[in-house]
Structures are given as structure tokens and as C-alpha cells.
């Protein structure tokens, strides 16, 4: 049995408290008045070289030059004042969105680790893998975060459209929809009621599978026959079918709809690859942590090698999907699709291209050698880079639609990560204490213990 | 041609062969060669063979392929005749790079795969019309053969090999290759 060390528990609480304070600070400072934003924009225009200036803002330079030359006709001045108000309001909205988006990105990132692990776990059972049963309890513990994590994501999404000012999903704003023919055409799918019901169905399905898989797994420990194993095999197969539908729809709902004018057919797969590789990486990191604490004598470097192979292969798979999505849109260059990448290329160049280095170039070079895959600190280092890369991936999916060129990595972003990292650690390691770390009587347990590559 | 004497010990089970290899290695005899009809897992480790470096060559061949692809397309599409083809930006390689990635990928794989296979053929001396080096045709079907060089210690070796479960022990002249 694993005992949650007091040090780690305290650490997770410190993370949560620091995170909460930072998130609170982010929300407190994000509500700027019209005049504040006006002053901010003027200051930026004078300083030059600020964030906003690098971006190609259509109105900003135009009206600034007007500002300086204060001899306009009345008509032009009126139009200009109108445009100015619009611009300031736009920026004000972006600034107000930032803590929401930062919270949402971090919440989604940790939820997606747990959900990716759940899919990996179901695949291991359905494929009757012989190497992984010694890691099942770790996977089960990580998936304990699916239910709280997904509920938090859904709540943030709904809250942004009810108590917030439509800070994440502009299609939730009736004002916007009234003036937007494109969104009007999608209201059959994009409406708050449907969004909520779908979200509840997804979460209920995932949590139900997780609940029963865990129950059968624990029951199998003390059973006299393999009936629990057979049940868990059957529900794993059923869950995988359910999962691939709901995961795809979840990615439209929870991520793609932040850009309600844009759509991509392989988006669901792309998000899946991101969550899958993050989940596998987290399995490796937690396994190595527990091993250094002496809880996993039955896990050897061969298991590590297999997990690292998955990290390597799925990193490449993610890149394949990322590139396929990017290249098809770049190549055909259809205006209604390509704006998605233009926004990211103009305002998010470093995160957009940096994540390809973190998620592809780094793992492919670090984990190609069979020897390196067996060295714990190498896998840990690469794993941390992969997780960082996939955080940035989610960041790149959400931020351009919510805060636009007003993005930055500061207190709201970092404290949101701390908050959910603390919660994740707390939930996962608490779940680890609830059952022995090695499955008993699982049909492939012996094979897994003696697994060597 | 200098002729030397070798002992051919024949086994009919791969587990017996494995334990025999370990015993012969423990007695510090040098095993010249082992002929098996199929890969015996762990035999190379038991014999103490050095690990293969073919994966390293494949990696380098892949880099060669990538370089070939980049150099070729940079010359053809950007330097030599930068046409406007459907509005694609042929001003610099990086601007038009996404369109080149499929070829970069395929040539990397092509070079890595083919050159590695050719390296394998060269290194293992395999080619069409090559005279088969097979001391006993049964080793391609269901027998395993261990070849040990003899340096005047025939009877000692024969005793040892008999203990290891060899079904047949032959002392033969071998032409040096």
C-alpha cells in the first residue's frame, strides 16, 4: 500500500493556495474601466514596441495617426470616435477574458491528462497487453481526476457564459449571435442548453467507465475466478467506442467552439493525440516518482522502455496530425479557414512554433535511442518537456480566440497551472493510497512482472 | 588454402543449445559459429556477441536523405527557377517549406530504409549467386549446429559437448574463408 507522504500533501496544498491567490488576483485586476484601457492604449502607442504594436491591428495604427493630427472634418471625427470606442471595448474585453482563459487552459490541460490516461488504460485492457498490468494501479489513480477535472472544465465553460461576460465562448452571447449569420446557422448545435447536456453526457460516460473499471479491478484482486476481468474487458471495449465519439464531440464543444467561425475535420483526433501523449507521459513520471520512493519493486526498466516508446511514438503521431491540419489549410489557403492560423502566426509565433520543437524535435531526438529510453532521468526530462509542450498546445488553441494579441504568460496563467497541478496531485495520490499498487490475480500479472524486452 | 579442424556439435532443441552455449562459454572455448533454422532469442547475448550498430547507420542515412531532399528542392524550386505556381511563396525555402515536408519525410525514410538494408547485405556478405555457407543442410530445417575450432584438444571437447546434450559430434576439416 502507498501512503501519501505528508510532504507531498502539504506541497499540493501550497500549490492550490498559491494558485487560488494568483487566480483571484488575476480576476481582480482584469476588470479595467473604459478610461483605463484608453490610457493603456495611449501609453502603448507612445512607448511603441509593446505587445499590441507587434501585432497587425487594423484599427490601432489608423486611429492613432488620426489622433495626432487633430484637424478632421466633423464627419470623419465622428466615425473615428466610433471606431475608437469599438477598439477600446474590444481590448477591454480581451483583458477581461485573460484570467478566464488562463483558468480554462490549465483546467482543460489537467483534465486531458486524466482522460488520455483513461483511454490508454482501456486500450491496455481491451488489447490484453502483457506488459502493462503492473502499471494499472497508477493509471487508475490518474484517472481518478477525470470526474472532478471534467466537471471543473464544464463549470468554467458554463460560468463564462452565465456569470461571466461571455469570456470564452462568444456564441453564448445573444448580442453577438443576433448580428452574426454564421453563428446563427450553428445555433442548433451551439446553444448553452445543448452544450450543457452534451457535457454532462460525456462526463457521465467517462466517469461511469472509470468507476466500473476500478471496481472490477479491485474486485479481481480477491476473486476466485476471472469473471471480473472479463467484465472489465467488455466495458473497456464498449468504452473505447463511446470515448472516440464523445472525445471528438467534446473537442468541438470545449475547444473548437471558441472560434465559432472556424472548423476542422481532424480536430478531434488532434486533441486526442495531445491528451494521449500527455497521459502516457504522466504515467511515466508518476511511475518513476513512486519507484524512487521504493514502492514499485515489480516495475523495471523494461516497463519504462515501453512507456517511453509510447511517448516517442505518440509525440510523432501528434506532430503528424498537427502538421496535417496546418499544411492542408496553409496549402489551400481558403480565407475562412486560414484566419485561424494567421492569428496564431502573427500573434503567437513563439508558442506556435516553439511547441513543435518541444513536442516533436525534442522527444524524437531524446527518445530515439533504445538505451536512453531506459534511463529514468532522461525520460523524466523529456516527459517534462512534452507536458510543457502540450500545455502550450492547449494555450494555442484557446488564447488566440479569447485574448488575441493581449496574451502573456504571467500571474493568471502560472497560478492557474499551480492551482490545478496541486488539485491533480492531491486527487491522484489520494487515489493511490486506496488500493495496493500491484494488481493481484489479474490474468496477465505474472507475464507483466516478468516482462523483459 | 590452409585447412583447420573444427568440431560440429549438432543439437535438436534450442533450449539445449542455449544451455550448451553457456557451458562451452564457461569452459572458455571459443565458439566459431552457430547455425540455426530460426532466430533463437537471447543466443547473441549468451554467445557474447557485440550489439549491432545498424540502427545508428540508419539514423545517419536518414539525415543524408533529409539533406538530399532539402538541397534538391531548395535548388529546383527556390534558386533555379522560382516560378509562381498557384500563388505559393517561392521567395525562400522556409516560406514554402510546408509543401516540401512530404518529400522531405519520404526521402528520409527512403534513404534510411534502403541504405540500411544494403548495409545489412554488405555486412553479412549476402548477394545473389553467393555460394551458401552451410555445413549441414539439416540446420535450415530442424537442427542446430555449433562449430568450435580444435587446437589439439579434440577428446576433451568431445566429452564436454556430449555432456551438453549434442545428438551428433563430427570432427571435420574446414576450409578457411
From TrEMBL, chain A:
Keywords: Membrane, Transmembrane, Transmembrane helix. The chain crosses the membrane at residues 12-28, 101-123, 144-168, 188-209, 235-255, 267-290, 310-330, 350-368, 375-394, 414-439. Coiled coil: none annotated. It comes from the Bacteria. It comes from Seonamhaeicola algicola. The keyword Thylakoid does not apply. PANTHER family: PTHR43044, QUINOL:CYTOCHROME C OXIDOREDUCTASE QUINONE-BINDING SUBUNIT 2 (PTHR43044:SF1). This is Quinol:cytochrome C oxidoreductase.
From TrEMBL, chain B:
InterPro entries: ActD. The keyword Transmembrane helix applies. Keywords: Membrane, Transmembrane, Transmembrane helix. Pfam families: ActD. The chain crosses the membrane at residues 54-77, 97-122. Signal peptide: none annotated. This is DUF3341 domain-containing protein.
